[in-house]
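Lab notebook page, bench 4
Experiment: in silico fold of construct C2
Operator: M.H.
Input chain length: 151 residues
Purpose: comparison with the prior construct
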Amino acid sequence: MLRKILIGIVVVLIVIQFFRPEKNQSKDFSKDITTVYTVPEDVQTILKTACYDCHSNYTTYPWYNNFQPMAWWLQSHIKDGKKHLNFSEFAGYTAKKQAHKMEETWEMVEKEEMPLNSYTWTHAPAQLTKEQRTLIIDWARNLQLQIESSL
């Protein structure tokens, strides 16, 4: 009986390898935040390292994305991250939404809720130093104020 269960599990694991989610790798940056606002190079570097995999339309996938069910799990995280904030679609947001997203950005970074621990465990460069956090917080606050002043 145990042998049949193990064989069944192995068969399921093999079969699911053929069902892969679509990759998040769009090359369309026409609505990227950088098309409407200045993002300093040091901030942009941090965003690309610690944020863009889940909060943009272009993800750099780790090696384990080649195996199911990991690819589904990653795709779920990416979809959820983009639902909350998508830097690749930022120019398409209303000014009010842009200001709110910047407020959420600095608050989440300040509270150390972003980047997620589950992300930094496997992406060591995404672990932000205190100085990097301060840089992101200051930039996002200033951008929030800039956007709000134009409302």
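Observations: The two ends are 68 Å apart (CA to CA). The chain has a mean pLDDT of 91.
Next step: discuss at group meeting.
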